[in-house]
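Aim 2 progress update. The chain analyzed this quarter is reproduced below.
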Amino acid sequence: MAEENKTKKPAAVKTAPNAGAAKAKPAAKPAAKPAAKPASTKPAAAKPAVKAEPKTAAKAPVKPAAKPVAKPAVKVAKEPKTVAAKKPVNVSKKSRLHEYYLKTVVPHCIKEKLYKNVMEVPKIDKIIINSGLGAVKDNGKSFNLALDEIALITGQRPVATIAKKAISNFKVRENNKIGAKVTLRGERMYEFLDRLISVALPRVRDFKGISPKSFDGRGNYALGIREQLVFPEISYEKVEKVNGFDCIIVTTAKTDKEALTLLTLMGLPFRDR
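Predicted structure tokens:
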């Protein structure tokens, strides 16, 4: 019996390693896991390929679409600027008499040594036209017609003058409209003076020239027009009443002699004293 027990013990010892070996076999299963890694790498490589395609496809159409939209926006913004810059150049045109003053009168005064500097040469500052309409003060239609005639002559709408005091002898009440006045400057002034010299004064009946004694002592000249019909803008058939007006030419001359020289060079027909 003792021998049997001795034999059994080593058998149990031998079987123990066999059992451990049997248990070690299933431990080989985790070795199959690294074999699955290459299979897992395939989808990982496929993912960036799928992501890269939409990125390149989205960038390509965006670039050409942005360029054509930006170009016309820049062109449209530049065109109105160039058009707006050209308009004032065409508007600023000088009249014939103004150019004659700058190109002929001023160089003549410097050449004759009348003035040392160009800025010293006198010039016409403004022209004031005043008309008394007391005869038609009570007739609104005739008064407005007289204002329209002055507007046609001067090219500018006149302002109605109002009586400051009531005068019973003239049947004038306070704040009554008794006349019209207009002040011309710049190119309208030169245009009116040009038409006055070249068209209106030659149409005056028995015209022998204007008086050189109508200066006020400060270089300003006063001229009276008896009829508005001397201007070709006025139609004889539409005139209800013949009205005259006073024309005052204001200059920058310091003396009457300088003003007379200036207006003579400008073309005003003065008669001999």
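The first strand starts at residue 124 and ends at 132. The chain has a mean pLDDT of 75. These observations will guide the mutagenesis experiments scheduled for the next reporting period.
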